[in-house]
What does this fold into?
Amino acid sequence: MVRVLMVCTGNTCRSPIAAALLQAKIREAGAESLVAVASAGLMAAAGEPMSAPAQAVLRQKGLSGQEHQAALLTRMDLASYDLILTMTTQHKRLLLSAPEAKEGRIYTLREYAGENGDISDPYGGEEKVYAACALELERLLGKAWEKIKFLAGKKQVLAKKNE
It folds into this structure.
């Protein structure tokens, strides 16, 4: 199983929206046994709920963020996830500076989707700002999904060889 971690600053907006959207893709593809997704923040207040506008945007897409509780990124997360996708280049730089960071596992979401740039933080904005962010995340995840599926298949093949 490939374990994917979405990372932003506070883990109440971008990364939980991205995780919920990716989880929906995983369900649609019937890939629950191949890919797992979670989210965390670099400066998260553990236990905080997803922001109300982020939850509203997810509800409009038939998803829920009510159960989300912000999680602070840990050193163990850096060592244990197969793929870590950050929302900004600065997030990526901070993670790569940690001794637990593993080469080839940490990318910005845009980079992994074959693009450049950061994903703007909607925090404190109106619901339409969150909706625009969610659309951008959805588009980028659509582009990254093929690579994630390929990684999951590759890992599955390696696991079978080691049996």
Summary: The CA atoms of residues 22 and 141 lie 7 Å apart.
